[in-house]
Write a structure and sequence with these properties.
The complex is a heterodimer of chains A (401) and B (221).
Chain A (H helix, E strand, L loop, with lengths): L1 H9 L2 H38 L4 E5 L6 H6 L8 E2 L1 H6 L5 E11 L13 E5 L23 E4 L12 E4 L2 E8 L10 E5 H10 L1 H4 L10 E2 L1 E6 L5 H11 L3 E5 H44 L1 H9 L4 H42 L8 H32 L2 H7 L4
Parallel strand pairs in A: 4-8, 5-7
Antiparallel strand pairs in A: 1-10, 1-11, 2-9, 3-4, 3-10, 5-8, 6-7
Helix pairs in contact in A: 1-10, 2-8, 2-10, 2-11, 8-11, 9-12, 10-11
Chain B lengths: L1 E14 L1 E14 L3 E5 L6 H8 L7 E6 L2 E2 L5 H11 E4 L11 H11 L5 H10 L15 H13 L5 E5 L7 H16 L3 E5 L3 H4 L4 E6 L2 E4 L3
Parallel strand pairs in B: 3-8, 3-9, 6-7, 7-8
Antiparallel strand pairs in B: 1-2, 1-4, 4-5, 9-10
The chains are: A alpha+beta (401), B alpha/beta (221).
Chain lengths: 401, 221
C-alpha cells in the first residue's frame, strides 16, 4: 500500500506539486502569522511581568513617546534636573523609586559597538528593575569598569570578556534574561559611570558644554504601594508641580496590546480567508482526482482492496502530500521569521528576543499539524465517496463520468 | 468438483426505465471448466461476470461459492475472496497508472497476500512483455495492455478466471495465445468463464452458453 501511495505521489508530479504548493502556501502564511502573534503577545506578557515599574517619570516637555521609551532600544537622550528625585520622594503611594541616566553609543565603528545603542546608567542602591535578574554577586551594584548587557547581546557570548564603549574598556559581568522590551538591546552600567562618560566622549561632550551631567537624570522608575490608583497617582504628579510627567507602564502596554490585537485580528481574518480558499481548492482537486481515478479505484476494489483500504489509500496520499507541504511551508516560514520580525520590530515595538528556538519549533509543529488537518479535512469526503463507490459502476462508468 | 453455483439469479438496472439483463440465471461451474458465454452486445454478459466476481449483488436468487452463500459475506470477506480466488480480465484495459507493468503485477499479488517474483517474470515472458516490464500503462499499446491484464488475471493463481472479451485489441497470434493460455489454466483445475461474441474463440471452450432475454441456454454442438 505504501508503494502505491508513494508512486501515486511521485509519478503524478504535476498534480502532487500543485497540492503540495497549495498546502505549503497556506502553512507558510499560518506559521508567519502565528510566529508574529506569539512574539508580540509573549513579548507584551514578558514586558508586563518584567518591566518592574508601574510608572515612569520623564522630562515634562520631552517629545519621546512612552512606548518608544519602554519598548524600543532607541537612544533617548532626555534629561531632567536631579532635584526631581527628591521632589518625587514626597509623592504618596510610592513603594520604591530609582533614577536612571541615559546616554548612547555611537555609530563610529571604532572603540564602540559600531552602532547607536542605548546605555542606561542605573543607581545600584535604589534599583529594583535589574536586581531580580542579576546574580547575587551583582545585587549590590557593579564597579565602574563593569558592564551588564541586554539579552540580545548575549548571542555574541560577551560575558566574561572585555568590551569597549566610547573608548572605555568594561568587563561584561552579566547578561539579562529576555524582557520583551528595549532593555534587551541596552547596555547597563553604574549611573555615575554613564554620567562620567558623557564628559569623556568627544562627541557626547558637545551636549554638556553648559551643564554637568552629574546634575541630571533621564527618568525615574516608580513602583506603587499596593492599592494605589494609577490615575490618581498621575493626577498627584500633575498637581505637585514636579518638572516631570508621569506615564503608566500598564496603560502603555494595554494600549499597545489593543493596537496589536486589532492588527492581529485583521491578519488572522486574512489568513482564515486564505485557509478557506485552500480548503476549497484542495476539496476541488481531490474530488477531480477521485473522478479521474474512478476506474482505477474500481479496479483496486476488483482485485481485492477493501473499502477501508481505498479510503486509507486516498487519505494516505493526501496526508503525505500535506505533510510535505506542511514541512516545506513551516521551514520556509521559520527561515523568513528573523527578517520579518526585524522588519516589524519598530512598527510593533517588538523585542526579537522573544522569538526563540522553542517558540519557532512550536510554530513549525503547529504548521505541520495544520497541514495534516487541512489535507485530511479536504480529502475525507472524496475518499469516503471513492471508497463507497459500487466497484462495478466505477469500472463501467469511469470514463463516462 | 463444484466451484460455484448460481441459481435463479435476477438482476435489474434502473436507468430511467428498468432493464433486466439477468432474469433467471442458473449455472454451475466446476474445476477445470472452460465456459464461453455468447450473445449480442449489451445483453448482460458482463453483468453476469460482475455478479460472479461479487462486484455486483444480485437482486434475487442464490450464489454459492465453495459451499458458502455469497449474499452473507460482508465487504471485507468479498474483498478477500476477490483477492485470492478471482482473476478478472475486464473488457476495458484498466491498470494502475502510477505503477509500471511489473509493479502492477506485484501489487495485485500482494493484495492477495502472495509474493512470487518468479511468477511475475514467468508471466511477463509468457505474454511477450518482458521488455515492457518497466513501462507505465500509458506507454503500452492497446494489445500490450490487454496481454498485461491477462497476466494480471493469472498472477495470484485464482480458482476462477472471469474474462470479458479477452481477445479485444489483440492480433491473431496473441488472440490464439491468450485462448491457449486460458485453456492451459483449466488443465491445472482453474475454471474459466469467458464472455465473447466471437464464435471462433467460443468454439475453444468446453461448454458454450448463450445469454438471451436474461436466460442462459446451452448451445448445441
Amino acid at each position: 500500500m505504501f508503494m502505491l501511495i508513494w508512486n501515486n505521489i511521485a509519478r503524478r508530479r504535476t498534480q502532487s506539486t500543485l497540492t503540495v504548493t497549495i498546502t505549503m502556501l497556506t502553512v507558510l502564511v499560518f506559521v508567519m502569522v502565528l510566529g508574529v502573534f506569539q512574539t508580540v503577545s509573549q513579548g507584551l506578557a514578558l514586558s508586563r511581568e518584567r518591566l518592574g515599574a508601574d510608572a515612569v517619570l520623564m522630562p515634562k516637555y520631552s517629545s519621546v513617546k512612552a512606548d518608544d521609551l519602554l519598548f524600543t532600544a532607541m537612544p533617548s537622550n532626555i534629561y531632567m534636573p536631579i532635584e526631581v528625585v527628591e521632589e518625587a520622594k514626597q509623592l504618596e503611594g510610592v513603594a520604591a523609586m530609582t533614577p536612571q541616566f541615559y546616554c548612547q553609543t555611537l555609530a563610529l565603528g571604532c572603540c564602540d559597538p559600531g552602532e547607536e545603542a542605548r546605555i542606561i546608567g542605573y543607581d545600584p542602591e535604589s534599583d529594583f528593575i535589574l536586581k531580580p535578574y542579576l546574580e547575587e554577586a551583582y545585587q549590590n551594584g557593579i564597579d565602574q569598569e563593569q558592564l551588564i548587557i541586554g539579552h540580545n547581546y548575549e548571542d555574541d557570548d560577551l560575558v566574561g570578556y572585555n568590551y569597549m564603549i566610547l573608548g572605555r574598556v568594561f568587563k561584561v559581568v552579566a547578561a539579562l534574561q529576555p524582557t520583551g522590551t528595549g532593555m534587551d538591546s541596552t547596555f547597563f552600567m553604574d549611573w555615575r559611570t554613564a554620567q562620567d562618560m558623557c564628559l569623556e566622549s568627544e562627541v557626547l561632550r558637545s551636549n554638556w558644554t553648559k551643564r554637568d551631567p552629574h546634575d541630571f537624570i533621564s527618568v525615574i522608575m516608580i513602583k506603587f504601594e499596593d492599592g494605589v490608583d494609577p490615575d490618581a497617582f498621575v493626577r498627584q504628579v500633575e498637581e505637585s508641580g514636579i518638572e516631570a510627567k508621569c506615564i503608566l507602564t500598564g496603560e502603555t502596554i494595554s494600549s499597545l496590546q489593543s493596537q496589536l490585537e486589532v492588527t492581529m485580528q485583521v491578519m488572522f481574518a486574512l489568513w482564515l480567508a486564505s485557509l478557506l480558499i485552500a480548503v476549497l481548492s484542495l476539496v476541488g482537486r481531490f474530488n477531480a482526482l477521485a473522478k479521474e481515478r474512478k476506474k482505477e479505484i474500481g479496479l483496486l476494489r476488483a482485485i481485492g482492496l477493501k473499502k477501508s483500504q481505498v479510503f486509507g489509500l486516498i487519505i494516505g496520499e493526501t496526508c503525505a502530500m500535506a505533510l510535505m507541504g506542511g514541512v516545506l511551508g513551516s521551514g520556509i516560514a521559520l527561515l523568513c521569521m528573523d527578517p520579518i520580525i526585524e522588519l516589524l520590530k519598530d512598527a510593533f515595538k517588538l523585542s526579537p528576543s522573544v522569538w526563540s528556538s522553542p517558540l519557532a519549533l512550536l510554530c513549525g509543529a503547529a504548521g505541520v499539524v495544520l497541514a495534516l488537518l487541512l489535507g485530511f479535512a479536504a480529502a475525507v469526503f472524496p475518499a469516503w465517496k471513492s471508497a463507497s463507490m459500487d466497484p462495478q459502476a466505477a469500472i463501467t462508468q469511469g470514463e463516462v463520468n | 468438483m463444484e466451484i460455484c453455483k448460481l441459481e435463479h439469479i435476477h438482476k435489474d438496472y434502473r436507468m430511467g426505465e428498468v432493464v433486466t439483463p439477468l432474469k433467471d440465471i442458473t449455472l454451475t461451474v466446476h474445476e477445470g471448466d472452460f465456459i464461453a458465454v455468447e450473445g449480442p452486445s449489451g445483453i448482460g454478459k458482463s453483468t453476469l461476470l460482475y455478479v460472479m466476481g461479487t462486484l455486483l449483488k444480485a437482486d434475487e436468487g442464490s450464489y454459492v461459492y465453495g459451499g458458502q452463500d455469497v449474499a452473507q459475506w460482508n465487504d471485507a470477506e468479498k474483498s478477500a475472496f476477490r483477492a485470492k480466488k478471482i482473476g478478472f480480465l475486464f473488457q476495458d484495459s484498466t491498470m494502475i497508472q502510477a505503477l509500471t507493468l511489473r509493479e502492477n503485477l506485484i501489487f495485485t499479488q500482494r493484495v492477495g497476500a502472495r509474493k512470487d517474483l518468479k511468477k511475475v517474470d514467468e508471466l511477463l515472458y509468457q505474454f511477450g512483455l518482458e521488455d515492457r516490464a518497466d513501462f507505465f500503462p500509458h506507454q503500452l499499446s492497446g494489445g500490450q495492455r490487454r496481454r498485461a491484464m491477462a497476466a494480471r488475471a493469472l498472477i495470484h493463481e485464482p480458482e476462477l478466471i472471469l474474462a470479458d472479451e479477452p481477445t479485444n485489441d489483440l492480433d491473431e497470434h496473441w488472440s490464439r495465445e491468450i485462448i491457449r493460455i486460458l485453456k492451459e489454466q483449466t488443465k491445472k483445475g482453474t475454471a474459466v468463464v469467458m464472455v465473447t461474441h466471437n464464435s471462433r474463440w467460443a468454439g475453444q471452450a468446453t461448454r458454450r452458453l448463450r445469454l438471451e432475454d436474461g436466460i442462459l441456454t446451452d448451445i448445441a454442438e
